[in-house]
Amino acid sequence: METNSQTISNEVVNQAIKKNRGRPEVNISWPTDSSFTLNDVVTLNDGLLSKAAIQIKLRKAVLAQKLTVTGSTPKTTKGRPSYIYQAK
After folding, report:
1. Amino acid 70: pLDDT
2. CA 70 to chain centre
3. Cα→Cα distances 62→2, 46, 67, Å
4. Number of H helices, E strands in the chain
5. Distance CA 44, CA 53 (A)
6. What phi and psi, each to the nearest 5 degrees, are found at residue 16?
7. Which segments in the chain show pLDDT lower than 50?
8. Which residues contact 80 (CB under 8 A, 6 or more apart)?
9. In the prediction, which pLDDT does 54 show?
């Protein structure tokens, strides 16, 4: 049987391990002077993260209200339109 102190210490150890596991978070920089698209952020942070990872960080920043979606680029005959973001 485990005592309460052993259970509490196991929980503390497990929480400490969770913080240190996985890849370290990479901070990316947004252009602050004007509006930008995903491709602008990819070229600004060249080689740090993949395009998909930057897209996920853009979505999280919009949900956290650090960025706003100001519009989208006009749709061409091929491809998808891309969103235009602006830092708050």
Report:
1. 93
2. 19
3. 45, 21, 5
4. 3, 2
5. 14
6. -65, -35
7. none
8. none
9. 92
pLDDT at site 26 = 85
Strand blocks (E) in the chain: 67-72, 83-87
| CA–CA distance, 74 with 23 (Å, rounded to integer) | 37
pTM over 0.85: no
Ordered by where they begin, the domains of the chain are 26-87 (1.10.10.10)
The amino acid that residue 71 corresponds to is G
Structure tokens at 81: 């339109």
Cβ atoms of 83 and 38 closer than 8 Å: yes
43: Cβ–Cβ under 8 A, 6 or more apart, which residues?
none
- Burial code (b: 16+ CB inside 10 Å, e: under 16) for 31-63 equals eeeeebbeebbbeebeeebeeeebbebbeebee
